């Protein structure tokens, strides 16, 4: 969810690594209770494509890049100016390897940091300039070294001097927490990461992460269509290596599918607010110092070993 002017630019990216462009006024307008139109009626999507990121912005700035992350832990940065001429059928934004998919795209500058979080609850933080700008057909470089059977589920970008921002991490079983960004050490890209949340049987794996402040509202959505809204300021800030508290009650077999920061908390959303947050049990937390050895021992710094990959686009990317 985002707020935008009708004349803003909008870039949309799919899980297959393609980019589409619209002006905001080209999107169908409807009331709060309207069902909306299927995205395939708005964009000329290829078969099986799903939109995973929408980036609204005022103008094409020379100091701004699009930062990508894939499920396998690959990251890439491309100058925003390379998306000024996007044909209606879309263009390639990043080369996606077989079995991989794009999970997130964000607008960044050199003032931003990047934080990647895996399904098993590990996170890597590095400065945006650790990744050099690449062309649209590049496959990218390693952002995080994933453990066996792990995958990347979240990428957050934020201004590194933003003292009010915190990271909220939500797991599949409805448990989550807020953590101060200062708790995540800035490393080189490509490391295995530090513990962001304990992914126990109670919590399940990490579903999603977002950067939030005390004034924000948060929407949680389950895979069975359940939605709740809550005030971020009511969620206690905890240490990295804790299990967190219950944010959303889910039934057996139900999981949190997505979370989103509400762009305009002051407006009526029509979504019921959640009940007061359930307090954590005494046994929910693990002291960070007890896990420090594990963090440091497993946190590699091998990002510089990766080579950038420039892929042939098969000749279908000529601009019109």
**Overall CATH architecture of the largest domain:** 6 Propeller
Count of DSSP-assigned helices: 1
How many separate structural domains? Answer: 2
Helix content: under 10%
The largest β sheet comes out as:
4 strands, antiparallel
**What is the CATH level 1 assignment of the largest domain?**
Mainly Beta
Brief sketch in words of this structure:
The chain is mainly beta.
Q: How is this structure best described in words?
A:
The chain is an all-beta fold and 320 residues long. The protein folds into 2 domains: 1-160, Neuraminidase, CATH 2.120.10.90; 162-295, Neuraminidase. Helices cover 2% and strands 32% of the residues. The strands form 5 sheets. The chain has a 4-stranded antiparallel beta sheet with strand order 3-1-2-6, with no helix packed on it. A 4-stranded antiparallel beta sheet has the order 7-4-5-10, with no helix packed on it. The longest helix is centred in the C-terminal third of the chain and has 7 residues, at 292-298. It starts with 8 loop residues before the first strand and ends in a 22-residue tail after the last helix.
Features:
single chain; 320 residues; mainly beta; Neuraminidase; 2 domains; four-stranded antiparallel beta sheet; 1 helix; disordered C terminus
């Amino acid at each position: 969810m985002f707020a935008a002017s009708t004349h803003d630019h909008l870039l949309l990216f799919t899980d297959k690594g393609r980019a589409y462009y619209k002006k905001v006024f080209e999107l169908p307008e409807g009331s709060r209770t309207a069902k909306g139109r299927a995205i395939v009626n708005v964009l000329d999507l290829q078969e099986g494509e799903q939109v995973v990121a929408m980036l609204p912005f005022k103008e094409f700035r020379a100091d701004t890049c699009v930062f990508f992350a894939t499920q396998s832990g690959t990251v890439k940065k491309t100058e925003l100016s390379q998306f000024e001429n996007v044909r209606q059928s879309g263009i390639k934004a990043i080369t996606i390897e077989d079995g991989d998919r794009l999970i997130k795209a964000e607008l960044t500058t050199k003032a931003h940091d990047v934080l990647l979080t895996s399904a098993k609850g590990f996170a890597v933080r590095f400065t945006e300039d650790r990744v050099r700008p690449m062309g649209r057909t590049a496959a990218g470089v390693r952002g995080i070294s994933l453990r066996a059977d792990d995958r990347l589920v979240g990428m957050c970008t934020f201004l590194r001097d933003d003292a009010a921002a915190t990271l909220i991490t939500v797991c599949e079983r409805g448990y989550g927490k807020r953590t101060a960004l200062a708790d995540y050490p800035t490393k080189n890209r490509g490391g295995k990461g530090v513990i962001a949340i304990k992914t126990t049987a109670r919590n399940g794996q990490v579903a999603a992460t977002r950067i939030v402040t005390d004034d924000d509202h948060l929407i949680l959505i389950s895979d069975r269509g359940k939605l709740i809204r809550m005030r971020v300021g009511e969620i206690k800030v905890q240490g990295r290596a804790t299990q967190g508290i219950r944010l959303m009650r889910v039934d057996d077999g139900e999981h949190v599918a997505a979370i989103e920061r509400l762009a305009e908390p002051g407006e009526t959303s029509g979504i019921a607010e959640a009940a007061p947050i359930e307090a954590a049990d005494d046994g929910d937390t693990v002291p960070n110092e007890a896990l420090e050895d594990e963090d440091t021992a497993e946190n590699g710094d091998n990002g510089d070993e990766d080579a950038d990959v420039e892929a042939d686009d098969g000749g279908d990317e000529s601009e019109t």
